[in-house]
């Protein structure tokens, strides 16, 4: 198209340049001496060439193609925006769910920690009570052992003292009599 356009412009410009050099009186409008008419004819020929070459159709197709591309881009952008909003809403919902779950986990952990503390306190009180009871049992056992030892010593001392007293007071006849009496007591208890 450039090959046709440039020579035609050169041909049209030639008469207009030639007409501009004369300083005669103003020619009539429809005279070839009038530069405005030459320019108008050149412009009309130029427009005719453009129309014949299909430039307006090409421009219209290019504009339609560009409009379609812009429309496609806008639809794609709208779809991407809707998808982004959907994803954002999904992430916000997931974030709320995660936050709620985290709060539940923290609350549950607090409850478990409180229950564990109460259980530990109860176990400690039970352990203390057991140790106190064991200590009291040991004390009581020690008291009983001490009392038994004191009794046993008292009995041993009393027996030794009684033995000494009896040994000093006893004769052979009274010893034989006591032995017979003890044998009789044993026979009656065994039967």
TrEMBL record:
One family name in Pfam for this protein: ATP-synt_B
Coiled coil: 60-152
Record-stated family: Belongs to the ATPase B chain family.
TM spans (from-to): 34-55
Membrane topology designation: Single-pass membrane protein
Function description: Component of the F(0) channel, it forms part of the peripheral stalk, linking F(1) to F(0). The b'-subunit is a diverged and duplicated form of b found in plants and photosynthetic bacteria.
Signal peptide interval: 1-18
Quaternary structure, from the entry: F-type ATPases have 2 components, F(1) - the catalytic core - and F(0) - the membrane proton channel. F(1) has five subunits: alpha(3), beta(3), gamma(1), delta(1), epsilon(1). F(0) has three main subunits: a(1), b(2) and c(10-14). The alpha and beta chains form an alternating ring which encloses part of the gamma chain. F(1) is attached to F(0) by a central stalk formed by the gamma and epsilon chains, while a peripheral stalk is formed by the delta and b chains.
Gene Ontology terms: cellular component: endomembrane system; plasma membrane; proton-transporting ATP synthase complex
Name of the molecule in the record: ATP synthase subunit b
Highest classification ranks of the organism: Bacteria, Pseudomonadati, Pseudomonadota, Alphaproteobacteria, Rhodobacterales
Record GO terms (molecular function): proton-transporting ATP synthase activity, rotational mechanism; proton-transporting ATPase activity, rotational mechanism
HAMAP family found in the cross-reference section: ATP_synth_b_bprime
This protein's UniProt keywords: ATP synthesis, Cell membrane, CF(0), Coiled coil, Hydrogen ion transport, Ion transport, Membrane, Signal, Transmembrane, Transmembrane helix, Transport
Subcellular location: Cell membrane; Endomembrane system
Main localization, broad class: membrane
PANTHER family (UniProt xref): ATP SYNTHASE SUBUNIT B (PTHR33445:SF1), ATP SYNTHASE SUBUNIT B', CHLOROPLASTIC (PTHR33445)
Alphabetical list of CDD domains matching this protein: ATP-synt_Fo_b
